[in-house]
Amino acid sequence: MVGCHSYDQAWNAQVNPDKRWMSFGALLLGLGIMAGAFGAHALKDSLPTDKLEVFKTGVHYHQVGSIAILVMAAALLASGTIIFALTLYGYTILGIKWLAMVTPVGGALMIAGCLASAISTFKAQER
Questions:
Q1: 110 with 77: CB under 8 angstroms?
Q2: Separation of CA 127 from chain center
Q3: Where are the alpha helices (DSSP H) in 1-127?
């Protein structure tokens, strides 16, 4: 049984990358829920309606991207979700206008992540 014990230790010492993505996706989703609550309660009366709608768009894609990370575990999707949501948050809350010009980069990364995951899944099914 000594051999089994050392094998168990070696197995447990490795961190499953899928579990790391699951943890990251769950954390990001929790932050997205907090951002939504912040917008609904703290920002509702302090932002103009058009800016609040932009903030809501950031929250929406933040949450959708987080769920996709949980399902697909994709680095492109994670970085895209972060860039997309944070640039919209910074634009609406801090008034940093140039951030809105970076937002499409996040969107493009999210799309690329979805496409890469789809291709990867398709290729895995062919094997």
A1: yes
A2: 29
A3: 2-13, 17-41, 49-72, 75-89, 99-126
Q: How far apart are CA 88 and CA 76, in angstroms?
A: 18
Distance in angstroms (rounded) separating the CA atoms of residues 72 and 69: 5
Statement: residue 10 has pLDDT above 70: no
Question: Is 127 in a helix, a strand, or coil?
Answer: coil
Give the integer Cα–Cα distance in Å for 37 and 31.
10
For residue 14, the SS3 value is: coil
Q: Which of 117, 124, 105, 14 is nearest to 75 (CA)?
A: 117
CA distances in angstroms from 69 to 9, 72, 74, listed in the order given: 29, 5, 6
d(CA 56, CA 49): 10
Mean pLDDT of 15-19: 61
**Cβ(64)–Cβ(70) below 8 Å:** no
This prediction has a pTM of: 0.60
One-letter amino acid at 6 equals S
DSSP one-letter code for 48? -
